[in-house]
Amino acid sequence: MIDNDILDVGETDGYVWVRINGKGSFNSSPPLKGFVERRIESGETRFVIDLGDCPAMDSTFMGTLAGLAMRLAKSSGDRLQLNGVCDRNRQSLEDLGLDALIDIDPADTEWRAHVDDVRGSLEPVQDEAEASDAAHVLEAHRQLCEASEENVKKFATVRDVLEQRSAGN
Q1: What pLDDT, on a 0 to 100 scale, did the predictor assign at position 131?
Q2: Is the pLDDT at 4 greater than 90, yes or no?
Q3: Domains identified in the chain and CATH numbers
Q4: Tell me: the pLDDT tens digits for 77-89?
Q5: pLDDT tens profile 99-116
């Protein structure tokens, strides 16, 4: 089980709000994915992922964001929105072409004026989530490759190793 302090959640202006506490990593991506997917299945279509307390992200986390953004676009036509993205994270997202899938710190959104109020009302996610495993990491890297053709070369070795590991189980 994952520590539920990784994610705080709430709602504002018709958006489901998810705040990442700490590094966006292979540890925080399974509970994020599980929570957002359950909300999509229940009919939610508008999401903000708040990265204001997220100083860095690994490729598994960014692959999870890519997968969620693609699923949301396919199911409803809506775009995943990110708030509080530091320069380092913005550069990482742009380097992987994820800015084509995700709205990064959009200026013209309903929630922009209420960020501080929303952050004060968030609560730890109540759902239990499983720890990251090789299958989750592999899926996240496949999503990165689907998001941008340039990522296929960047992550070929990682994907090959993870696919071999999965085939061995």
Answers
A1: 62
A2: no
A3: 4-168 (3.30.750.24)
A4: 999 999 999 999 9
A5: 999 999 999 898 999 899
Q: Which of 90, 30, 11 minimizes the C-alpha distance to 54?
A: 90
Burial class (CB in 10 A: 0-12, 13-18, 19+), 133: middle
Residue 7, classed as helix, strand or coil, is strand
CA of residue 141 relative to chain centroid, distance = 13
**Overall size of the chain counted in residues:** 169
**Which pair of tokens denotes residue 92?**
């990482």
Q: Exposed (0-12), middle (13-18) or buried (19+): which is 61, by Cβ within 10 Å? A: buried
Distance of alpha carbon 66 from alpha carbon 99, whole angstroms: 10
d(CA 168, CA 133): 14
The rounded distance, in Å, linking the Cα atoms of 169 and 150 is 29
Q: How far is CA 128 from CA 32, 33, 35, 162, in A?
A: 11, 12, 9, 25
